Every structure is written in structure tokens, then in C-alpha cells.
Amino acid sequence: MPDTTHADGSLPASRAAELVAELHRLIGELQTVDLGACSDTELVDVAAGTETAIARLTYAGDRQMVTIADRDLPHRTGYRSITAFMTHRLRVSDPMRRNNQRGATATHLTHTGQALPPEHPTLAAALADGRVGTSHVRAVIDVLDQIPHGTDHDVTVAAERQMAEIAEAHTPADITQLGARLLAYLDPDGTLADDSERTRRRNLWVNRQRADGTAKLTGTLTPELAARVTMLLAVWAKPGMNNPNDPDSPTGSVEDADPEQLAAAADRDDRTPAQINHDALNALLKAVLDDGLLGKSHRGLPVHLIIKADLADLIREAGLATTATGNLLPIPDLIAMAADVQPWLAIFKDATAVPLYFGRGRRLASREQRLVSFARPDGEVCSAPGCDQPATHVDMHHAQRDWAQGGLTDIYDLAPACPRHNRMVGDQPGQYTTHIVRSGPDEGRCVWRLNAEPGAPPNPEHLNRRPDIPRRFAHHLNTVRDEIHGPPTRSGDQARPEAPHPTDARRSWLTISHVIDVRPPRPGPPTPRPSLVEAHLMTLLATL
What we know:
Strand order of the largest sheet: 9-8-7-10
Strand content: 5-15%
Keywords: Endonuclease, Hydrolase, Nuclease
Number of strands: 15
Organism: Gordonia lacunae
Number of helices: 19
Protein name: Endonuclease
Structural class: alpha+beta
Number of domains: 3
GO molecular function: endonuclease activity
Region (Disordered): 480-509
């Protein structure tokens, strides 16, 4: 066999690498080509051909992903799963969806090297030819996944071919509607959807918060839970009941309300039925929290509303507070809640002294340490880069040195880490090495580095920058205002508008007083007394 090694000892580029390079060259030309020379018909054909090429490239990418998985490249490069590899190395935007698509339309190999046909072969052929796009494929998979497990094999095969045919001629929204009709045809009497099928489909999701702080609740309820929810709404969700906008509205069950008071409240009630349902659920959960039915402690934190807010935001009644569950709460809502709830509230001003330095005296963090960890500027989520697990879902990680290696249970050396990332810390490839930053603007924060195999290029260190968004926005806003108005140069210059007030992360959290002091006792001047406004506010909050 002839030697194909180059004179400099390097290997020649593979045909696949050459094709990708040529593809990028062609894409570069396509992005800048003069479309004005196209006739109307040619322009439509070019646009349609480009969309077809995008679909075919997706199929080619899925085939490459299969080979990557077969070679175990994700684990060899330090990633725990193909999904993590796709997310962080290949920057795939929706790896879970892409994995489902790959499993349904790609050809896989057995451990002996034999090729397995795609799970949905007709759909796979349509994607490979570019007759359907990724959105069509996802809509079809969503429909086919709803076919009951008890359906005969020939019926499922026919349904797959029918849905692939539908996908070639319809929009994704049409696919969903026509798929629902097909599912009804397959099981008109509901005989295939037994208890196990209903159990498989059950789910309840609280989706991510929108920009205004609201979140959408979606779910599929079992008959048992549906019965309980409808019973709750029957007795708590009545006009006039549990109305947060009416101070005289009865709370709790309609059976316990005074009839005359309820009738008067119902006359004033202008809520929609959906809003009444929402307020009933909110009132029930408030009663559950007040009665202590959720227990006394969760991961070392008390089972209450635990909220942190900047004192300046509270004084000016603007901005956002953060709960231990990771939700953003407008300051006016927090102040309104403080009238009838008892939250734990961390304020960045004048604190009491509680010992937070245990050395080797204990391994697990105390409640006070967990509260202080949440109160730190980056303590609202897991410290691992990109992780959004809230404070109620994290452990306290010995970030500077592991406990088994002589680490100390001191607040200086601890960092929040969710159980998944906490278990991933170690000195082996694919595990993480962590340490605490001791100086600079990120002082006190935990740095994470993914360990690669020996001889592989080292991975960079990363911080979880999620908590920095408000500060970085304020920085950019001030920069823009400086560009427009110019920076103030003299004391008599008119001050430009203030930027939103985030917690100033340039001040290390280690040098800020909290509700619980994070500093060891040291000699020095006495702590300045708060202003009258601050003292009054803190006295009020101390009664919560």
C-alpha cells in the first residue's frame, strides 16, 4: 500500500475534511452572490434548493454524530455524554431534540459492526433527500411517540409511512393537527391506552421565567390527579374567593366562607375563570407553606420563602429580588408579600456575628453557611459554568480542597454545587478540578476546569457567569450613556441618568456584611451605624 504521508510528516486531509472545506467555500460564495441577476423563477428555485440543502446537511451531520458516538469521542475528550459533547464542543443548539431525531432517522451500528435500519426509515429517506426539514421531522416524531405501546407492529409501520407522506406536503403545524386525527383513528375507543400508558405520559413542567417574571405551567395529568385538581378548583376557585386584589375576599374553601361576605366579594370580582383558578392554586400553596407540611429543612435550608435583595433596591422600591428556587421577584411584589408571609430575607447591610468557620470540626455546611452562600452575589445557582440549578437544589462543595484531602468547612472555601456537578469533581479525565479565586473582581467565586486525558490540550477554566448579567448590563448601559452624554468632568456638570442598580460585584462578597456575618472577628474600627431610613427598614424587615 503506497505511503500517503506528506513530506513534513503530516497526514493528508481526508475526503470528508476536503468536502467540508469545499462546502464552506461554496457557502461563502452563496452568501455574497448577486441575487439581482436571478429571475423570479430562479430566485424561488434557489431559495427552495437552499432549504433542501440545509435538510440534507442535517442528515449528514446526524450520520457524523453516530460515528462520533461509536468511537466514544465524547468520553475520550472529557465529556460525560454525547449530549454534553454536542452542547459544549459542537455548540448544537438543541441537543436533546437532535438526539431524538438522530435516533429516529440515522443508521446505527451494533457492537459487532452490523448496520441497523433507522427507527423511522421512510422519514429518514425523506430527510436525506431534503424533502422534509428538521421541524417537520420533529413534528412527526412527536406524533409517532404518542402511539400506544400496545399497537400492532404493522399498524405502527403504516402510521410512520403515513406521517412521512404528510410531512412532505404540509407545515409542522398541519402535521400536528393531522397526526392528532391519525392517533384518534388508531385508537377510537381508547382501549390501547391502559394504566401503564397513562402513567408513561404523565408530566408537569414549570417552564422558564419570561422577561416579565411570569412562567407557564404545562402538564399531562393522570385521571387521579385530574380528579384532585378539579376538586380543589371546585371549592377554592369560586368568584370572590382568594382574590389577591381584594383585601376583604374570603380565603380558603368556599364551604368555610361567610355567605354574605362571599356574595359581596363576588360582585366586586372582575377576574376571568383562568385567573380565579390561578389564585386558588396560589392560596392553597401558601396555606401548605404556612402549615409546615413541606417539612422543616431541604438541603440544609429552611422550607420557607428565602429571598435576597439589595438594600438600595428595597429603599427605592424597584429592581428584582432572587428566591432560593432561582426565581426573579419584582421588589414591589416582595414588599407586598412581606405583609403576610415570613420569608428569610438577606440584606447586604450591617450584620450580626455567627461563626461560619469550622475548619476540620465538621464536614457538612451549617444552615447559616448555606444562607450566606445564597446571599453572595453568585450564590443563587450552582457555581458550575452554565448550570442553572437554584440554591434549593445544591450541595455545599469543598471547592478549594476536597474534604478527603484535608479541605476545610469554612465559608471562604465553600461553593454551591448541584449534586450532579458535585459528583463530577475529581482528578480523572472527564472530571472537574475546582478552586476559589482569591483576588480580583471575581474574588470568592469558584472556578471549574474539565480534565482532559493526559497529552490532550488542557481545557480552559470557566466561571458561571449567569449571576453577572445585571452587572454587565449596567456596565454596557453606562458605556452607552458615556458615549452619548460624555462622562461628567466637573462637579457642576449635570449628572446623567442613573443605571439600574445591581449588586456591585466589584466588591468581593467576602468583604460585605450580610444578615449573617461572613468575616471572622478581627480588631478594627466599629461598624458605621446605618442611616435612619436604613435602620427603620431593617427594623421592619427583622419582624418578618
